[in-house]
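S1.2 Input.
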Amino acid sequence: MTSAAEQRALAEGRAAESGQPAAVVDGVRRALPAAPPAWPGAPTPLGARFRVGPDGVAGTNFALWAGGAEAVRLCLFDERGRETQVPLTELTHEIWHGFVPGVMPGQRYGYRVDGRWDPWTGARWNPAKLLLDPYARAVDGEFGLPPEVYGHVRDWPEQHVADTVRDDRDSAPYVPKGVVVHDDDDWADDRRPKTPWADSVIYELHVRGFTQLHPGIPEELRGTYAGLAHPAAIEHLVKLGVTAVELLPVHQFAHEDHLLRRGLKNYWGYNSIGYFAPHAAYAASGTTGQQVGEFKRMVRALHAAGIEVVLDVVYNHTAEAGELGPTLSLKGIDNRGYYRLQHDARRFADYTGCGNTLHVVQPQVLRLITDSLRYWVTEMGVDGFRFDLAAALARSMHDVDMLSPFLAVIAQDPVLRRVKLIAEPWDIGSGGYQVGAFPPLWTEWNDRYRNAVRDFWRHALPDVREMGYRLSGSSDLYAWGGRRPYASVNFVTAHDGFTLRDLVSYETKHNEANGENNRDGTDDNRSWNGGAEGETDDERVGALRRRQLRNLLTTLLLSTGVPMLVAGDELGRTQRGNNNAYCQDNEISWLDWSLLDDPAWRPLFDLTSRLIALRHRHPVLRRRAFFSGRAHSADGLRDLAWFTSRGEEMTEGDWYAPAATLGMYLSGRDIPGRDERGAPVLDDSFLTVLHAGDRPTGFVLPGAPWAERYEVVVDTSREEQAEAPGTVHPAGTEIMVPARAVLLLRVD
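S1.3 Output.
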């Protein structure tokens, strides 16, 4: 691309102008600027791609799939918001396309799509509505939801038929525009960490919430991709020892009408509208394409620190909601082609609770999703994805189907099958709960792990069977089809629900700030407040809560599987009892970094980082295969053994008996697999004792052949954890385990 080529393209565009087109907007015929010519261009790739066209002329190729549409007009906007319309007359396999000379990077654009207005059959074309390109790589402007952005008359007096009355007002002044982006970055200097699944420790964070209050990040960079790339932010991640950040949604998203009416916004971002565009509000450098480069620099900085980037992605629904929602993009391009509709095609099928569900079995929808995924891997540098409500993506026509087109395409795709794939294995539809059912290549959020660990530490499990499965990798769920223990992403908390501190401080949700009369959010918290609801000055209660936090974190980081932490849990972050802070873009959700300097909370960070380091050092804690429970040597040692407080191996009856204490022995001599040079993998052996009772208990340390002595490595009853070697106990002796505590002992 040269300046001469740019000037020639612009000159040719001006020379081709003729006549004065017009459009009817708000019932008034208005003159529009003369349109530049659209050369035929190409139907692939979809989206807006800047390139040098015929005869060396610089311009942009535009391609939009719009099945069933009668006409498509490309709308170009100058810096003052004036619109120029360019008819796209070429149609190839339902893709409307054209090459427009002189359209350069930074150009803002959208589409108007003509067709039938017949909501009873699902047809909702309305050329008065400016539509965002589904393939737009950058978005400029903020999504508000005035009446003009609805395809129907939103405020029609008879609401039960409002969606059938077409609104002919122009939406262009009120909606963001796509931006033409050109980026020839080939990532030659990037080095992906490529951390094996078994070695991974995931850290779920929000770009804005993690950086907004960080004192080491310059104020102008807080809340942005550049802020997360700042050395002060990365330093915390490195000290903690996590191997991957899982970013809450960073695809361009919109805010729901009911939130805007209450003066709130969608903070979490699970309301996507642009699957190729980094959310513009998280960019410090600008929103006319600069956000793309800023995001890439963030990924590079994290990779340089050895940290992978996983995106939480929302392909199950969009921000257009149901039939009473706005018309922003897909609904106006081809409503029937993109969304699942009910038998009454006027209504949307809703397996997500958000008003609509993308129709993933449709080839064009499947292409949109897979093109987006490949783009974020190959051009934006990310290392994996966590799929929100993944069961909705695995539905064929109605039922969840593990042989569905979506899962089949992912399994054979040469790019996507190599990255980290995490399913949230449920949706809200019939048969939507699919924990343990996703095929090999996939890992899953394991909510049965979450529930078991929460219940154990509030002493609410009827016996310890469930806890045994969860601590040892959930073989009952994942030991099939060649899956491994790391198919289980273990978590105690996530963005949705209580923070870890709130889990031990509140027994009921306190979501009044959300403006929904505390009706939102789950009531199944499985929490225990330690004797007082919310914050308290009672030091006895405070000490108990901090001990419970240590118990929960220690259990998580010693369990077989992939641990996931939530940003701020290692600091004792609180949301004041709000278990659904999706609309709280404020101090309720942002990390309070002053906790690092608080003597009451700093030890929690130190323990967490110490446990992660311990996990990294010891392969026995990062198993790549399930335990067999069988003896592999003449002395009778097994790779996994369970003990009662009497120091005896558990019997069948012990598993079914009420108990508050569980001993788990991991043998470092029986780790399956070999290292890179083919040598056996050997490690220390460990005994973990978990005691959820409210009084101390005796525990007899197993004797021969299990051990000769035991060294205490972690004792969660202590506020401070000693770095030096701990107390050594001879095998066969009875030790006293403090109330509500975990002991980790190294075997000699």
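S1.4 Remarks. The chain has 17 helices and 31 strands.
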